[in-house]
Amino acid sequence: MSEVPRQLRPEELRQWEAAIQEADRHNIFCRCRECDREWVSSKPEACQCGSKRVEHIACWQFPDG
Ligand SMILES: [Zn+2]
Fold first, then answer.
1. How far is the CA of 12 from the centre of ligand 1 (A)?
2. Ligand 1 being an ion, which residues bring their Cβ within 5 A of it?
3. Given this model, what pLDDT does residue 17 score?
4. How far away, in angstroms, is 47 Cα from ligand 1 center?
5. Residue 38: inside a domain
6. Is 56 part of a structural domain of the chain?
7. Domain contains 21
8. Quick one: pLDDT at residue 58?
9. Least crowded by CB within 10 Å, which of 2, 23, 40, 54?
10. Ligand 1 mean position to 37 CA, how many Å?
11. Residue 47 sits in which domain range?
């Protein structure tokens, strides 16, 4: 039996890198405490669901895990 190695295909790697660069540019990761929506923004903002209970985390401040 052989195991399939878990590695990203070049295409997936490019998408991942693009996502990182996008986050870098905008800098603020937002997560709504009401509906759990997650998005990245250039500034702290309210959620599309209308909730202002949104967590704002600078991308370079991500906690471990
Ligand atoms: Zn929300």
1. 28
2. 32, 34-35, 37, 47, 49, 51
3. 84
4. 5
5. yes
6. yes
7. no
8. 79
9. 2
10. 6
11. 27-65
pTM: 0.53
Contact 40, 46 (CB under 8 A): no
For residue range 3-61, list pLDDT tens digits in order: 666 788 999 989 888 877 776 676 888 999 999 999 888 888 899 999 999 998 876 66
Any domain includes 36? yes
Tokens for 17, please give them.
């890198």
Q: How many domains does the chain have?
A: 1
What contacts 50, CB < 8 A, 6 or more positions away? Answer: none
pLDDT at 34: 97
**Gap from CA of 42 to ligand 1 centroid (Å):** 17
DSSP count for the chain of H helices, then E strands: 1, 3
Pairing of strands 38-41, 28-32: antiparallel
User: What is the 32 CA–ligand 1 centroid distance (Å)?
Assistant: 5
